Each structure stands twice: as C-alpha cells, then as structure tokens.
C-alpha cells in the first residue's frame, strides 16, 4: 500500500513538473514562482525515487493499541483525515523508535524492525519492551540489537550506507540537538561520527526547512575520496540540497590539487600567516624613493614626489577599506595633486595675480588626467588592483617579497614558502580567502560584465529569431501560398527566448553557494574536523557568521601537522566558551580484538585517552607477521590474494606508507587486476590500495597494513596515522612488518 502511494506521489510530482516546464511568459514574479515550482517538483521526483529502497523499516505498537509505521519520508492518507500512513523518522513522534527501552518504554509496547528487499518484506525483528520479559542477554544500551548487529556484519560496498533504521540513543541525541550554536562531537574511530553528521544534516533540513533552504547547509569532509564515499547517504534520506566540499574546494575558481611538503602546509595554516598577508598587501602600496616623472602627450612633464605619494597612501590606508576599494581614495589624492600642478602652470596670471582657472576648470583637468593612460600606469604601479591569486603568486615567487612580508619568520620558514611550481595546494585555499578579505572586491567590473553578457544573450536571441524569420519566408514561399502556417517568431519574441535561456541558468541554493566565495551558510557541518588548521577555521567561520555549526572529529586521529590539538584551542577565538561538547563512546565498526591492538597505540599517543568500547566481540583475531624486507611486496600480494578470495561480497583495504604507495600499489595492481590504486581509487573495487590520508574516515571488511613502522616514521603525527590505519576494519586485520 505504501509503495502504491509512493508511485502515486511520484507520478503527481512528475505531472506537475511537466506542466510548469511547458508554461512560459508572465510577469517577473510569475516567472520566479514558476521557477521555484520547477525546482520543487524536480526535487520531489528525485526524492520519491531515492527512498524506494527500505521505504518503511519500522513499526511501533503503543500501549494504547496504536500502530505506527516509521520510514524514510512521511506519507499521509490524503483521501481520509490526512492521517499519517508512514511517519518520517525525523518527526518528533518517531523518536520513541530510537529511544524507547525496556526500562523506559515511553509508551511503546513493541518495536519492530522490518527488513525488505525491493518491495517485499523479507524478515523482521521484534523487541517487546517489557522489563519483566526483556531478554537478560541483550545489551541493555543497544536499540534494536539484532538489526544493528546484522547491519554491522553486512559486507561493505565501498559506499557508506545510512543508519536510519538503527540509530542508537546516544547518536539520536546529537542528531536532534538544537540548530543554533556550535556543537562539537568528539568520538573515537567507528563511533558513527560521520553517520551522525549526515543524519543531523537531514534532520535539520527537515525541522528547519524554511530557514535552511534559503541559506543552505555546507558539509566539509577531508578529501574527494571521502566525499565520494559518503555521497549516497543524504540522497537515500531524501535530501539533495546539502553542499559537500573538501576544505580545498572552498575558494570558487581555484582547483587546489598540487601537493607540497607537510612542513610547508603546516606553516601556511598558522595564524602568523594573517600578519604575513597583511604585510604583503601593504608592501604592494608603494612609495617611490625618487620623484616619478609622468610624460603626458602634448603637455609638459608632471612630477610626482615621494611626499605626495606617501600622503596619498596614508590617506587611502586610513580609509579602512580593503586594498582594492581604497584604491579609489588613493587615485583621488594623486589626481588632485597632479591637477594642481597643471593648473598652477597653465592658469598662472602673468601679472602675478590669482590663478585664472576656476574650480570647474580644475575639475575638468582632473577628469582628463584620470583618463590619461600615463597617469593610470603610474597609479597601477603605486597601488595595483590585485586578485588574491596575483598577490599570493607574486609573494611566493620572490624571496625579497617574502622577506619584506614575513619578518617574524625564520630563514628556514621563509624558504618553505618560496615555491618553484605554479598551481595551488589545499593549504593555499585559506590564504587565498584571507587575501580576498584583505583586498576586497571591486564588483563594479563584475556587474558590468554581467550586463555585457545579458546584452550579448539578447543579441543572440534576436539573431536566432532573425534566422528563424529568414528560413520561414523561404519555407512559406516553398510550401504554401499566403500561409496560415505559424512560424517560430509568431510564438515567441526575443525577450521570451532570452527568458527561457535565463530560466535554464537559474541555480539552486547549493549551486549558488558553491559559486560564491562570501556565501553565508545557514549551518556548517565539518567532518574529520581535527585536520583543520587555524587558518582553515578562520575561513569556515567566515562562511558561517551565525555560528550554527556541527563539528565532528577525533583529536586522537589528527594527521595534519597544523591540525587541531584541542577543540577549545580551535574554537575559542571565535565563540569563546559558547560551544557544547557531546561524546560518542561506542565503536560500531571495529570488533573488540582489533580495537585492543589500536588501544596500545592510542596509549602511546596519550595515556589519558580511552578507546571506544566495541559493540562486537569475537570473529577473526588480528594477526601481525614479520617478513624479510625484500619480501614485503611479494608477501603483501599473497596475503591480499588470500583475503580477496575470502571476501565474499565485501571489500579489502590495503593501507601502505605514503612513501611506498607507488611501489606496493604497482605490485598489487600487477598481481590482482581488481586492485584500485591512485590518487582517487575506485572505492567500489574489491581491493583498494591507499595511504592513511586517503583511508581517513573509510572502512573495509578486511584491512592489510604494510610496514606500520614506516607509517609512524613518515610524520610527526605518525602514531595517530597508525591508529587511524588500525581502526579501518569491520572484521579482519592483518599486519605485515618488514624486518
Ligand atoms: N547506529 C548505527 N547503526 C548501524 N551502523 C552504524 C551505526 N552507527 C555507526 N554505524 C556504522 O559504523 C561505521 C562507522 O561509522 P562512521 O564512519 O560514521 O564512524 P566515525 O566515527 O566517523 O569513524 P572515523 O573516526 O573512523 O571516521 C559505519 O559503517 C556506520 O554505518
């Protein structure tokens, strides 16, 4: 019955969408309303298709004899009293499905987890929430234990799945926390932080749809591989409007893909760089040592002395405007000084009286001077209009500029900033953003560009119609006499054609936000947030002036050298003490035996840290084998082949040191054709070879770890990297240790 309703809803939305797409014309308001209707119906069609699998997954039988079905979306009985036939999991009344326990049943008598394949029910688990009959062996803090364990034991697919059927109470509390303020979720590996972050996004969009659909929600994840890994989750929760980005993607128009030494990236993430960039901008506001001569055609030579330039510079700086906007002040000052020179010469009274020019004459001289290419060239030299890219590229290319801008850095640090290659790195992105703030944007140019584009499009539309008119007359002459035949120009004029074109260009909130550097999001969610540098935090805070944020991570897993040592350090510069901490304590991913191995490493990182408790015990014990150094690749290939043969429908991750990924990756790819290697390995392959940085946040049924000692020695945060690597397996872990 529910699937029939779903089909009906999808068809209705598709019909309405088609109707809206056919309509044209009308007032601006009508067009804009039509536009949002098109977007709404298109979203609905997409959402109804996305919730097909596992549409209804739960049932609550209440003490008062009620029976409620819980599912991915709400479906109502539109024929009757609008009763809910299926309750959206995010609705307040559905909450008991996740929270009711035998000790605190919340009016629930029985909770049922339904399993379906396509549109058929294939099984169910019931829990009778009666303290007298509760099974004594059940894990008392787990909700829907049988379904949870079935979900955890299932083979991995290379794509993260949603957990909507088995959200646990400690996770539910975080998912449904209030929207305002900064909420930090700290939790060990596999405690469901990523899952919780995604479900929270879906919950917030459902609960605060109006507010968040206009401002948008941004979810930041550590790298492109990770974003691909999680990309299916929100669509299956019927939410498509969240913008997923890595920190490296947050400067529109810049593709920050170049890699650089970890030490350089770490330095670029430090707060001192704010001062370096401010000094680099000041350094571009130049005062010459000697007077500059400006040779104007058909006029005498003008002289711009250093004092005038300095006075104009100081005036422009005092305006408090960003560099590019302060240029207007600078121009006025210089042009005034030069115009006075000209006026003095040409207006001088030969009889020694007052200057013969009046104010209007001098104004005219200023206007002329402002347009003189020679004057503009001098202004550009003294106070150039700069893009963030230009400022940084010039700075990093020139040791003298670096020295002038970074007096507080050591020589060695300055050498780190000097770059030989062009191209941007992820650590450059917060610097570009900082530079954009310091420089400001003179958007008059952009506006003029938009107007030019519009004029061009109109011209184009008219051109299209011209062609249509031309061909029509021939068609008409050829095919009919007199002609009752309607041509394209009878149906549509240039304005309408342009309007159609513009409609196609109108964008969703997420698309507009993605293209706008200064977009202020309604809510920002950061996953693996421990990796962010202080400068990356500055950038994110700019994107979220309302400070409505969910920050998810584990300080014990920090791999980046400039990463976050403590949440207080990262956040207090922006929100003082006004942030809340929630902790997740149960690991759903890693079985106890594997967690025990990881716990030893965690104790070495910081003896005060405690690993999460594993829900699952038993299974295959992890193994750790020494192999001769020169046999590592061969042994790894053998072990991988054995694991791959045993996998069934699961996935194997082979985690190797960054310095050996080419060598070991090539050996594995040669022996196992299904092995995926490279910068963005295909995660759905049965065998995936990765570095720790790439494996961050991912999981596999089985993990083989090669050369853990090199992983530790490759970075100052090597122990944390090893901890991450050891906690990626849901079932089996094998370690090969060269000796
Ligand atoms: N309530 C749950 N029901 C079913 N599966 C769950 C639940 N909570 C977590 N999981 C599963 O546990 C695994 C780990 O979750 P997730 O990746 O969100 O953990 P994490 O805390 O982000 O880990 P890491 O710190 O390693 O990135 C995932 O496969 C997730 O689906």
Q: What does this 3D model show about the protein?
A:
This is Helicase. Keywords: ATP-binding, Helicase, Hydrolase, Nucleotide-binding. InterPro entries: DNA_helicase_UvrD/REP (IPR000212), P-loop_NTPase (IPR027417), UvrD-like_ATP-bd (IPR014016), UvrD-like_helicase_C (IPR027785). By secondary structure, the protein is α/β, with parallel strands linked by helices. Among the domains are: 161 residues, no CATH class; 175 residues, no CATH class; 147 residues, P-loop containing nucleotide triphosphate hydrolases (Rossmann fold). The chain is built from 31 helices and 22 strands. The strands form five sheets. It has a six-stranded mixed sheet, with helices on one face. A hairpin with a 7-residue loop joins strand 3 and strand 4. The protein starts with a helix and ends with a strand. About 2% of the residues have low confidence. The protein binds adenosine-5'-triphosphate (ATP). The site of adenosine-5'-triphosphate has 24 residues, from helix 4 and helix 6.
Rg estimate, integer Å = 32 Å
Spatial order of strands in the largest sheet: 3-4-2-1-5-6
Helical percent range?
Answer: 40-55%
Structural class: alpha/beta
Shape: globular
Average pLDDT works out at 89
Number of strands: 22
Tally of individual helices = 31
Enumerate the distinct ligands: adenosine-5'-triphosphate
The rounded distance between the terminal residues' Cα atoms is 63 Å
């Amino acid at each position: 019955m529910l699937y029939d309703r779903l089909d009906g809803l999808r068809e209705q939305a598709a019909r309405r969408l088609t109707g809206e797409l056919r309509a044209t014309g009308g007032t601006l308001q009508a067009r804009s309303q039509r536009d949002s209707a098109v977007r709404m119906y298109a979203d609905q069609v997409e959402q109804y298709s996305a919730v097909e699998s596992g549409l209804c997954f739960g049932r609550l039988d209440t003490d008062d004899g009620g029976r409620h079905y819980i599912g991915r979306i709400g479906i109502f009985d539109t024929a009757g009293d609008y009763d809910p036939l299926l309750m959206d999991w995010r609705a307040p009344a559905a909450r008991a499905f996740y929270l009711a326990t035998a000790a605190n049943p919340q009016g629930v008598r029985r909770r049922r987890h339904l399993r379906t394949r396509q549109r058929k029910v294939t099984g169910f688990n019931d829990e009778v929430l009666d303290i007298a009959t509760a099974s004594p062996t059940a894990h008392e803090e787990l909700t829907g234990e049988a379904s949870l364990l079935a979900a955890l034991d299932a083979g991995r697919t290379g794509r993260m799945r949603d957990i909507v059927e088995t959200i646990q109470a400690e996770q539910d509390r975080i998912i449904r926390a209030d929207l305002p303020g900064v909420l930090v979720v700290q939790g060990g590996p596999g405690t469901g932080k990523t899952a919780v972050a995604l479900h929270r996004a879906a919950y917030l969009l459902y609960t605060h749809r109006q507010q968040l659909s206009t401002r948008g929600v941004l979810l930041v994840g550590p790298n492109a591989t990770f974003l691909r890994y999680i990309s299916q989750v929100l669509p299956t929760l019927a939410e498509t409007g969240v913008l997923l980005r890595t920190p490296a993607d947050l400067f529109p128009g810049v593709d920050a893909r170049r890699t650089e030494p970890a030490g350089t990236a770490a330095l670029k993430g430090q707060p001192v760089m704010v001062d370096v960039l401010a000094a680099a901008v000041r350094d571009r506001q130049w005062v010459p040592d000697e007077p500059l001569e400006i040779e104007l055609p058909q006029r005498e030579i003008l002289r711009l002395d250093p004092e005038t330039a300095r006075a104009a510079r100081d005036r422009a700086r005092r305006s408090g405007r960003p560099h590019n906007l302060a240029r207007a002040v600078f121009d006025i000052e210089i042009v005034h000084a030069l115009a006075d020179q000209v006026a003095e010469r040409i207006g001088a009274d030969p009889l020694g009286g007052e200057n013969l020019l009046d104010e209007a004459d001098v104004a005219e001289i200023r206007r002329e001077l402002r347009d003189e290419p020679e004057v503009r060239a001098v202004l550009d030299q003294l106070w150039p209009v700069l893009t963030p890219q230009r400022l940084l590229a010039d700075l990093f290319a020139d040791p003298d500029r670096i020295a002038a801008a970074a007096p507080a850095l050591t020589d060695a640090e300055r050498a780190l900033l000097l770059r030989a290659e062009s191209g941007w790195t992820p650590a450059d992105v917060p610097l570009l953003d900082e530079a954009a703030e310091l420089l400001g944007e003179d958007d008059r140019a952009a506006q003029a560009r938009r107007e030019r584009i519009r004029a061009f499009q109109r011209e184009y539309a008219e051109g299209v119609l011209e062609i249509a008119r031309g061909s029509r007359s021939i068609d008409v002459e050829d095919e009919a006499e007199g002609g009752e035949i309607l041509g394209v120009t009878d149906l549509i004029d240039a304005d309408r054609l342009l309007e159609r074109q513009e409609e196609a260009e109108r964008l969703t909130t997420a698309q507009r936000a993605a293209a706008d550097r200064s977009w202020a999001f309604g809510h920002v969610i950061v996953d693996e947030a421990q990796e962010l540098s202080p400068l990356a935090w500055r950038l994110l805070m700019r994107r979220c002036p309302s400070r409505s944020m969910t920050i998810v991570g584990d300080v014990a897993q920090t791999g980046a050298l400039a990463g976050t040592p403590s949440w207080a350090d990262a956040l207090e510069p922006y929100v003082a003490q006004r942030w809340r901490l929630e902790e997740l304590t149960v690991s759903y991913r890693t079985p106890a035996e594997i967690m025990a191995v990881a716990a030893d490493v965690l104790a070495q990182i910081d003896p005060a840290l405690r690993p999460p408790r594993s829900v699952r015990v038993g299974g295959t014990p992890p193994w750790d084998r020494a192999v001769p150094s020169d046999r590592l690749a061969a042994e790894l290939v053998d072990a991988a082949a054995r694991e791959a043969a045993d996998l069934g429908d699961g996935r194997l991750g082979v985690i190797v040191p960054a310095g050996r990924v080419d060598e070991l990756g090539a050996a594995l790819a040669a022996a196992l054709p299904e092995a995926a290697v490279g910068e963005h390995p295909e995660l759905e392959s049965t065998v995936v070879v990765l570095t720790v940085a790439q494996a961050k946040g991912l999981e596999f049924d089985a993990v083989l770890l090669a050369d853990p000692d090199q992983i530790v020695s490759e970075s100052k945060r090597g122990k944390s990297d090893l901890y991450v690597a050891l906690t990626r397996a849901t079932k089996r872990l094998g370690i090969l240790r060269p000796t």
